[in-house]
Structure formats: C-alpha cells, structure tokens
Amino acid sequence: MRALALTAITALGAPLPVLAQSSPLPEVLTGHGGPIKSITLADDGRRALTASFDYSLILWDLSAQPARILHRLLGHDGAVNDVAFLPPPGGAVSVGDDGQVILWDLEKGSPKTVIPGAPVKMLDIAISPDGRWAASSAWDNSARLYDLQNLAEIARLPHRAPVNAVAFSADGARLFTAAGNGEITEWDRASAQQIRPLYRHGWGINSIALIAPDRLAFGGLDGSFGILSLASNQVTQLAKSERPIQSVKTSPDGALMGYGDGAGQVAVFASGSGVLLERGTVTYGPVWDFAFLPNSPYIYHVGLDDFAALWRISPRDFGPIEAELPRRFQIRDSEDPGELEFLRKCSICHTLTPDDGNRAGPTLYDLFGRRAGSLPGYPYSPALAALDVTWNAASLSQLFDDGPDIMVPGTKMPIQRLKQVDRRDDLIRFLETATAPVD
Ligand code: HEC
After folding, report:
1. Which pick of 102, 169, 236, 362 has the fewest CB atoms within 10 Å?
2. Chain segment 30-48, per-residue pLDDT in tens
3. How many angstroms is it from 204 CA to the middle of ligand 1?
4. Atom of ligand 1 nearest to the CA of 391
5. What separation in angstroms does the CA of 352 have from each of 79, 416, 422?
6. From the alpha carbon of 79, which atom of ligand 1 is closest?
7. How far is CA 21 from each of CA 24, 292, 310, rounded to the nearest angstrom?
8. CA 310 from centroid of its chain's CA atoms
9. Is there an atom of ligand 1 within 6 Å of 417 CB?
C-alpha cells in the first residue's frame, strides 16, 4: 500500500489531519465463533483485542498478513462485552455478561486474576491513565470501581438506571458515568462520591469518550452525537443519526473522534473543530464498536459478523460492502419446524459438525448417547462436567423444560426454556437426525 500524503481531502471537503500508513493492514480479523461486541487496539497499533458473544477474546497480531491469532483468551462464562489494554507493564482487562472482571496476562494468554461478581451484564470497562484503577458499568444500576494493584472491587456507585458507559478523567481522579435514563454523572474516584450531575439527555446514553480534558463526547439511543463541556455543562449536538449510536471513540492522538450507529454507519469528526470529515455505511447491521488505527486513515469495526473489518476513512471506501447475506446468525427459512427452532435458539452458540467452530457452546455433533460435559477439549463449567446425565430425548427435554439453570445449577449456558411441548419435541427430533454422526 502506498503511503498517503500528509493531508487528504475527504469526500466532505474537509482535510483529514493524520495520515501515514506504511505496512498493509489485514482486511479482516477472522477467528471468532460469534458476533463481536468490542475491539480495541494497543497504542502502537500492532496488536488488537476483540471481545465476542462466543465467550472468548482474541489477541491479534496486526503486523502479520493475514492477521495472526496470538492468543484466544478463555475464562468468561458469558458473552464478553468490552476489553481494554493496560499501560506498561501490560495486560488487559475485560467484562461481560457474567459479571466477572478478568485481568489477562497477554504473554501467556491466560487469566492473571478474576475479580468475581454475581452474574450481571457489564457493557463497558475503563482504565485510569496510570493503569491503577478500573471502572465498569453494570445493569444493576451501578458503576463499580476496582483497584488493579490490590485486585479488588473497592466501591459501587449507585445510579437510577442501568449504567451503559464509564470513562476516567485525564488525570484519573474523576470518573464519568452514563446511564440508560440519559444521566451523565461525575464522581470522585478516591471517595467514590458523586461530585455532580453533568447532564440529562432525554434518551438513554449508550457510549461516552473523553475527547479532551474538558470535553466528553456522548452517543444516545435517539441517535444524538454530542459534546458536553465539563467546564460549562453546555452541550453541542454535532449530528443526529436515524439509529441509536452504539459506540463513540477517539483516535489515539485525540485528533479524530467519531461514532458508529445501529444501521452500519460510521461518522468521523475533527475533535478540535467538530467538523464532520467523513461518513459512510461500513456494514449491514449495527456497528457495535470500532477503533481508530494510530496515524492512519483506517478503522476496524465490529458487529453482527464473526470477523472485524477494516474501513478506510479517507479517501473513503466507496466500494460495495462485502458481506455474505444472510449471515450465519440470521435466520434462514426452513420447512422443518425443529430446524427453525435450532436456527433461532441454538445455532449462534452450537454447531452440528465435529468442530465447535469456536462458538460459545460445545458442538452438538454426536450428542445422543454423549455423557454430559464429556467432549474432550471443550472448557465445560464444573457444574456441567459433574452432571451425571447421558443426553437423549428425555434428558434434553428436561433440560429445556426446567431450564439449564435448574437442571444444572452453575452452568454457563444461558437461561432459556422451551415450554411449548410440540416445539420442544420438534427440536429434539431435528437434533436426533442432525447430530447423528456420518460415517
Ligand atoms: C448463548 C449461547 C448458547 C445458546 C443460545 C445455547 N447454548 Fe447450549 N450450551 C452453551 C454453553 C456455553 C454450554 C456449556 C455449558 C457449561 O459448560 O456449563 C452449552 C451446553 C449445551 C449442552 C450440553 C452439551 C454437552 O456436551 O454436555 C447441550 C445439550 C446444549 N447446550 C444444547 C443447546 C440447545 C438445544 C440450544 C437451543 C435450544 C442451546 N444449547 C442454546 C451455550 C449456549
């Protein structure tokens, strides 16, 4: 790829300030077995971390072509929603639907510490600039503070609605939180006390990012993308998307900021002036997250696909969006009501082939007659591994009549029940043939 001139004129006529990219970047990061919730890049732009619905994270080497998987990080018992790199000496911290906060040793590719928590959805994790403190946003109407040196939760900050996003101030002394009722609040990190409410948006706030020491960007459920001045509490609305804003980000040098929305659009602005530099549809479906490459006119974006994809901000990619539709996760039609049940309720986490395809659950290939929790190589929960049951029509029926949480307390399979007897029977009949080994 040729190096780009220092400024390029974007489609909207405004100059994009930072542009230099020497080595080609991988177009896609392929390896997850489910949709990807979050992507983050190391400061040097050479490694990325992705967090997936498939309960795992992947550490990528972006200097290889195609991107190389350095480690697959296993430890969460639910979808992983966010991850952040730690400053030197390094590592990463992640959160997900299981309420655990996991500190990763990225050299070994294994958990260094797990700060346990009751199962509660946590969507966002923030790290103080010095790497000493972390904060998470939780759907039990709290934000939580962690001491990463003593590896413990130290405070819970009460809110009036589920908390969607957290961000530290530039000096790490304060924390900003954004909630589903539209409130943005400022907290003192040391005392864990509220300093002041900053702003109340009419709709829930999904994402925030500090774009300068005195300015916070936010994205709302109503499609608002705005800037909140921390000095004056004034809000400037920069754009209004037709779909919810999913993710708000800044570039590593702070020069660019932008959002990804629920309809596949990414918009990039100059952080200083607020001028819109570029806007484009990068995918079908939501942009759950994206990340700017340092000193380079590219982003990686993630969403319903099981891969992350590269998009050139400027000169903008006008080519057709490449996607195989329907996606693996989209429901195709089937004549067979049992197959339809499987496609709707199981296929996002289970394959029917000998390989589990890195999905959250073990493959159901050759399921009938399998002792529960016995597939070699799959990281079962202790609860399922200890279950004294052989899978057959009766035990599977019980699993989804009672629900996995009742039949196997402590399992990491999410709570789901199939109460309609005929549907359940259809599904089990389908599974019996579809999982039968082919020889
Ligand atoms: C969101 C992900 C997810 C969905 C959806 C899901 N499962 Fe699972 N399933 C899992 C996980 C994770 C495990 C392993 C649980 C453990 O180790 O505790 C599992 C385990 C199982 C097992 C036990 C397998 C064994 O080797 O013992 C069966 C059977 C099963 N699932 C069937 C189903 C069926 C049928 C559906 C659809 C109705 C379904 N699952 C939907 C994640 C999922």
Report:
1. 236
2. 999 999 999 999 999 999 9
3. 33
4. 29
5. 21, 20, 22
6. 1
7. 8, 13, 13
8. 17
9. no
Rounded Cα–Cα distance for residues 97 and 137 (Å): 11
The per-residue pLDDT for range 169-210, each reduced to its tens digit, is 999 999 999 999 999 999 999 999 999 999 999 999 999 999
Atom 33 of ligand 1 has which residue's CA nearest to it?
A: 346
Distance 122 CA to ligand 1 centre (A): 22
Residues 74 and 142: their CA atoms lie apart, in Å, by 26
Model confidence band, residue 15 (pLDDT cutoffs 50, 70, 90): low
Token pair for 283: 């995918």
Cα-Cα-Cα-Cα dihedral of 80, 45, 9, 208, to 10°? 40
Written as one letter, the residue type at 371 is R
Cα separation of 183 and 181, whole Å?
6
User: Is 362 close to ligand 1, i.e. is its CB under 6 Å away?
Assistant: yes
- What number of CA atoms fall less than 13 Å from residue 38's CA on the CB side? 25
**Cα 350 to averaged position of ligand 1 atoms, centre (Å):** 7
Could you give the CA distance from residue 160 to residue 177 in angstroms, rounded to a whole number?
12
Residue 206 CA to residue 204 CA, distance in Å, equals 6
Q: Which two tokens stand for residue 218?
A: 């936010």
Q: Give 177: exposed, middle or buried? Use CB within 10 Å, 0-12, 13-18, 19+.
A: buried
The number of beta carbons lying within 10 Å of the beta carbon of residue 129 is 13
Report CA dihedral (353, 357, 361, 367) to the nearest 10 degrees.
10
Q: Copy the structure tokens of residue 394.
A: 């009766």
Amino acid at 422: D
Q: Is the CB of 345 under 6 A from ligand 1?
A: yes
Is 380 near ligand 1, meaning CB less than 6 Å away?
A: yes
Classify residue 438 as exposed, middle or buried by CB count within 10 Å of its CB (0-12, 13-18, 19+). exposed
